[in-house]
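[recover] target loaded
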């Protein structure tokens, strides 16, 4: 009889921090913009579509 230890417990309601945005709910993405004739990159806030801006995703998502 061997007992296996698994890292994740079968919890029904468990949320994990979104690895896509780091739990912020949004992402800062540099967007190229031309301002005054010169190209610049401006950081722009974009809502994270993985967690729906909540910063958390339901269930367990193992970091890859
Ligand atoms: Zn997210």
């Amino acid at each position: 009889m061997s007992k296996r230890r698994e890292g994740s417990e079968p919890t029904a309601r468990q949320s994990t921090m979104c690895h896509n945005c780091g739990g912020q709910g949004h992402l800062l993405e540099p967007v190229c913009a031309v301002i005054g004739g010169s190209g610049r990159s401006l950081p722009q806030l974009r809502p994270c579509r993985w967690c729906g801006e909540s910063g958390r995703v339901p269930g367990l998502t193992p970091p890859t």
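[recover] notes: Residues 42 and 62 are 32 Å apart (CA to CA).
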